[in-house]
Amino acid sequence: MKQTLSLVMIVKNEESTLERCLSSIVSSVNEVVIVDTGSTDSTKQIALKYGALIFDYQWNGDFAEARNFALSKSTSQWNLVLDADEYISNNCGNVIQQFIKGEPAIGRVKIVDKFMGSDGISFEQNYISRLLPSSCRYMGRIHEQVVSNLPRIIVDVEVQHDGYFQQKKSDRNIPILKQEITDNPNNPYYHYQIAKEYRGLENHEDSYLHLKKAYSLITHKEGYAPSLIVNFMYAIMSSGHLSDGLVVIENEEEFLKSFADFQFVSGLYLLELILSNPDQYGKLLPYIERFYLCAIEIGETGLEGSVIGTGSFAAHHNLGVFYEVVGNIQKAKEQYVKATAYDYKPSLDRLINLG
């Protein structure tokens, strides 16, 4: 029997992105359910162009309650949950149909988050539960999670997300996260999420403090644990608490031996540590090369929380910078050439500078 599928969304003032989202998936669903939490622009008119069923909802600061209200309006056997600042970027209609014809399970789709990194635009990959049987519901005021004992299976659906690219939603998110932390002070996930909000505001001290707390609470069984540890390393550098990093590297080197992002950030950290006190830490210089070579050997794995480039062009570039710093210009050029194979402009600029 053919399974039916609804696209289920909650929106508010999304006229700039909603059509992009709907056009990317509408041909693959039987129904579009839009719950509007108070739009004053043309969001509803755009939704109507795509035949959406629109329901008004009084926003109360709880994403799970809003999502659950939206799910309750779906008439399909399955639901695909998207946000307006997301869109499907691969041809996945048949893949979705095959998945929902199978045994009941929750489908985890790849979310590619666009953000501004230190060397320009970067992309982080995460796998989020978004293909849900109709019985599933959410819990959590923010960064809400699906509550279910069903198995979670990665499905070949790729979603691009640029809602936080050069935008800040901290005025909305931080108060909700603070309330969650008040209610759940020992939940590392909320400390991890609020730390990312503070990082976006360049409040590096508060980001560091919450990541330090989160790091002390994780069991290492969490799917987000590798990303949390890597983010903690970046916060250690940004906040100037450099003395913390060596312990983290020592403790996590085995756990994250196959995570290129950890090797990458370890190389970055060691260079900063050595520059802070060459007499004390200069003996660690060879480890920088080792970490970047390890990242390159691991390559682009697409693991949860990985940033595209840490196992390829960015690692080649940073290794080139290392070789340049230690005076091995020939090796530096070799690494820059490898990075330019990915059209990585910073490496091209270094090659031009080196003649």
UniProtKB/TrEMBL annotation:
CDD domains: Beta4Glucosyltransferase. SMART domains: TPR. Residues 6-106 form the Glycosyltransferase 2-like domain. This is Glycosyltransferase 2-like domain-containing protein. InterPro entries: Glyco_trans_2-like, Nucleotide-diphossugar_trans, TPR-like_helical_dom_sf, TPR_rpt.
